[in-house]
UniProtKB/TrEMBL annotation:
Classification lineage: Bacteria, Pseudomonadati, Pseudomonadota, Betaproteobacteria, Burkholderiales
Residue span(s) of domain Sigma-54 factor interaction: 339-562
Gene Ontology BP term (one): regulation of DNA-templated transcription
Alphabetized GO MF terms: ATP binding; DNA binding
Pfam families, per database record: AAA_lid_14, GAF, Sigma54_activat
InterPro entries: AAA+_ATPase, AAA_lid_NorR, GAF, GAF-like_dom_sf, P-loop_NTPase, Sigma_54_int, Sigma_54_int_dom_ATP-bd_1
PROSITE patterns in alphabetical order: SIGMA54_INTERACT_1, SIGMA54_INTERACT_4
Name listed for the protein in its UniProt record: Sigma-54-dependent Fis family transcriptional regulator
Organism name: Aquincola agrisoli
Keywords: ATP-binding, DNA-binding, Nucleotide-binding, Transcription, Transcription regulation
Length: 636
């Protein structure tokens, strides 16, 4: 395969050169370089690249980047959700994740703060071009060129300038088997992690499965695996069949599980399995169907999508997705009209929470009071597609001694004051739905143990009763305190924290949101449809720290409308209803609210690195930023 057109002698010579160079670059490496790397080096040499003369990284214009993002459409949407999931899984390990289109151009990147600002991380901006012919052997370019997942470790990069990073990338294919993009994870060579390649491959495989089902919506899609418990996981093979009984799409796992048989688009069902297609369809159940392949192996089969075939045969029910559920589901749920979510961090929180609940993972929602945690939880429930109800419970509002009975239910006469007929409890009420444990940090310690036990086995033990009851509940938890800190201080069980925070989403406080003006405008119009804030009033509101977030904002505006029923509010009008400490000129002995505002300004200044950016992001004047920075002694 390697440089087939050349003579064997030339090949040997070039191969020896490449091996020698790789060995010189990486003297510690004992192993022979992988064949994908050697082949890639050969392609780079054929393309006329010279490793001693690196070319500058090419970056497309903003307009081109925007057009490409639009064109990537659904694949990009799915890739962003996967990148967010990956980001959570490998967070903190100093890496960068990227999605690139088929031309090798990075459309989106997610990075650890540390890596993003490092020399290597800053070298992989959105819009940068990573084909082999432009950047030599590298994760994205090489995965796109060879059509397989690859890891390119440090010195295996063709150009020396990338030798301190490691990339692992996987191409994404659509239902027709065409490459439609690629995912990549890059980190410093010396801190690379072994499991990253598997995670990236799994993310790409999941996108491929969703594309297969969506692009063959009118076809029968089945999952196959030798062991029924693996149906519904990423190890299952997927096969789509058209009405003619021929394969119309398949994933790589299906080809692997049916190795030895000619799995191709167009192959007839009967060439793969020992049964006529029509008979198979007639007896196909949601799950638990068995099927013998043409080589005699028995497979468990489950119908994921009946397609048009169900219309002809109403006897084909769709199996319920397993809780590992990496199966196609509706698109991510973003807030509805009337709710404000233009801020990128907020949108990311919504998308991530939706992606997590579709996989049945617990989600921990972190955010200040009134920042919209419950609203986000309601959206996550809607996105999960679970048929049961959404049940919110405020862990701080129920007296500790009654909480166990509230949560797990009780049998009649279990304690003084108990109802005669007993009470089913909130977890039972949330069966097949979602339970939100709001202010979960307030959960009394003994109840934390009971909740942990429930999360482990899904069984309810009603107070005073003996009978266990199995329920299916998606648990979400919300908190305004840092639970990790509470766990370190022994106020919260660390093992419960690990169960609840499989995925953590953070809602930014109102003062850090880039959509603050829209939020204020929306809150005002919800109170009085024809009311309006002047630009000066908006600026004045943006200077306030809003420790109570949306709730405080609404209360302030309601007060302003009481005083000014005409509804046209100027800076002075809103200043008049802000808490007193916010109206005074700042002086020594700052109030808590002022301290909050100062902290917010300092945090944003440290994050963005400039006074102008801080002013723009927080929507306050540069003078205000300077004032707070001076107060905090944060100006050099
Ligand atoms: N993005 C938004 N757009 C418009 N209104 C919002 C938004 N987010 C929250 N709100 C409104 O703000 C109020 C508080 O929201 P929510 O109860 O979800 O906050 P929370 O973080 O759960 O509060 P707490 O910590 O006090 O429980 C609600 O009335 C909600 O409708």
């Amino acid at each position: 395969m390697l440089v087939q057109a050349r003579s064997a002698v030339q090949d040997d010579w070039r191969l020896a050169q490449m091996r020698a160079l790789l060995a010189r670059r990486n003297p510690g490496a004992a192993e022979e370089p992988p064949v994908d790397i050697l082949e890639s080096w050969a392609r780079c040499l054929d393309a006329g690249l010279d490793f001693s003369r690196p070319v500058p990284l090419a970056v497309v214009e903003d307009a081109d980047l925007r057009r490409r993002r639009d064109e990537a459409g659904r694949v990009r949407e799915l890739a962003l959700v996967e990148l967010e999931m990956l980001f959570q899984q490998i967070a903190g390990s100093n890496f960068l994740l990227a999605f690139a289109d088929t031309d090798g151009i990075v459309l989106d990147r997610y990075a650890d703060q540390r890596f993003a600002t490092s020399h290597a991380g800053a070298g992989i901006p959105a819009g940068s071009l990573w084909t082999e012919s432009a950047a030599g052997t590298n994760g994205l370019g090489t995965a796109l060129a060879c059509g397989r997942s690859v890891a390119v470790n440090g010195p295996e990069h063709f150009f020396g300038q990338f030798c301190d990073i490691s990339c692992t990338a996987a191409p994404i294919r659509d239902a027709d088997g065409r490459i439609v993009g690629a995912l990549d994870a890059s980190s410093y060579f010396d801190t690379r992690q072994r499991h990253t390649q598997a995670l990236v491959q799994m993310a790409a495989a999941h996108i491929e499965n969703v594309l297969l089902a969506e692009q063959r919506a009118a076809h029968l899609v089945v999952a196959i695996h030798p062991r029924p418990e693996f149906i519904g996981t990423l190890s299952a093979g997927l096969l789509a069949f058209g009405g003619d009984g021929c394969v119309s799409a398949f994933n790589a796992r299906a080809a692997g599980l049916l190795s030895g048989l000619a799995v191709r688009r167009g192959t007839a069902f009967e060439d793969l399995f020992n049964e006529p297609f029509e008979r198979f369809v007639a007896r196909l159940h949601g799950s638990g169907t068995r099927l013998r392949d043409a080589l005699g192996s028995v497979l468990a089969v489950s119908c994921l999508q009946p397609g048009g075939i169900a219309a002809r045969r109403p006897s084909v029910p769709v199996s319920a997705p397993a809780s590992t559920g990496r199966l196609p589901r509706p698109a991510a749920s973003l807030p509805a009209a009337g709710e404000v979510a233009e801020d990128a961090a907020v949108q990311q929180a919504y998308t991530l929470a939706a992606a997590a609940v579709r996989r049945g993972l617990p989600v921990l929602i972190q955010g200040e009071t009134g920042s919209g945690k419950e609203l986000l939880a309601r959206h996550a429930h809607a996105a999960s597609g679970r048929p049961g109800p959404f049940v919110p419970v405020n862990c701080g509002a129920v007296p500790a001694e009654l909480f166990e009975a509230e949560l797990f239910g009780y049998v009649g006469g279990a304690f003084t004051g108990a109802r005669r007929q007993g009470h089913e409890g909130l977890l039972a009420a949330a069966h097949r739905g979602t339970l939100l444990l709001d202010e979960v940090g307030e959960l009394p310690l003994p109840l934390q143990a009971a909740l942990l036990r429930f999360l482990d086995d899904g069984l309810l033990r009603p107070v005073g009763g003996r009978q266990l009851k199995a329920v299916d509940v998606q648990v979400l938890a919300a908190t305004h305190v840092e639970l990790a800190q509470a766990a370190a201080q022994g106020r919260f069980r660390a093992d419960l924290l690990y169960r609840l925070d499989a995925v953590t989403v953070r809602l930014p406080p109102l003062r850090q949101r880039t959509d603050f003006e829209a939020a204020a405008d929306h809150a005002l119009r919800a109170l009085q449809a024809d009311a309006r804030l002047t630009p000066a009033a908006l600026r004045r509101l943006a200077e306030h720290a809003w420790p109570g977030n949306f709730r405080e904002l609404r209360a302030c505006l309601a007060r302003a409308l009481l005083v000014h029923p005409t509804g046209l509010l100027d800076a002075g009008d809103v200043a008049g209803v802000l808490p007193p400490s916010q109206r005074e000129a700042p002086g020594p002995g700052l109030s808590r609210l002022q301290q909050g505002a100062t902290q917010a300004v300092v945090a944003e200044y440290r994050r963005s690195g400039s006074v102008s950016r801080t002013a723009r992001n927080l929507r306050v004047s540069r003078t205000t930023v300077y004032r707070h920075l001076r107060e905090a002694g944060a100006l050099d």
